[in-house]
Amino acid sequence: MPRADAAEGAETPRQPGTAGLSGASAAVARSRRRPVETTGTFPPQGSAAAASKGQPVPVRQWPIVIVLTIVAVGLAVTALNQFRPGVVTIGVALLIGCVLRLVLPEVGMLAVRSRFTDIAVMGVLGVAIVLLALASEPNPVITIRFINDIARMLGRGDG
Q1: Are 107 and 46 in contact (CB under 8 A)?
Q2: Where in the chain are the domains?
Q3: Of 87, 111, 109, nearest to 101 (Cα)?
Q4: HSE of 128, CA atoms in CB hemisphere, 13 A
């Protein structure tokens, strides 16, 4: 069904899904190419750099640098055949990231989603990693009852 374009006086066919769109919006909706500029999205709250723009990038992004450095140390310790201390270090790095996201107004690249979501995800994963590392065999430091029940159901538990 053709429609009259008021600006040019030309007839252009109406594309499905473009009803109610005008001008550039209808052109983008008709195109299969990605738009050059993304509009309508906002960066996460607190995602500005933690230091001034005159500083080098590692200094501006110091919260994520600290967290990733601690994770790298944990991976190195794990690679040196020290499973439990290495994995606990990785979990602690997530908990430090959670605390940094909670207390600092701007954390740069450590901000991925909303403040609440970042804190919840890093906190839950950090606690889970630490608890599971402490409960892992051999010689668990703590005992988590439901993990023993699951292991028993799988035939790997202690009677």
Answers
A1: yes
A2: 1-41, 57-153
A3: 111
A4: 7
Q: Which two tokens stand for residue 152?
A: 């028993």
Chain position carrying tokens 């959670």: 98
pTM of the full structure: 0.67
Q: What is the pLDDT along the chain (159 residues), one digit of tens a residue?
A: 555 544 555 555 555 555 555 555 555 556 678 777 767 777 777 777 777 788 888 888 899 999 999 999 999 999 999 999 999 999 999 999 999 999 998 888 888 888 999 999 999 999 999 998 998 878 888 887 777 777 778 876 555
- How many CA within 13 A on the CB side of residue 149? 3
Burial environment of residue 44 by CB neighbours within 10 A (0 to 12, 13 to 18, 19 or more): middle
Q: Which of 92, 43, 89, 94 is nearest to 64 (CA)?
A: 94
- The owner of tokens 């606690």 is 127
11-13/2-4 β-pairing: antiparallel
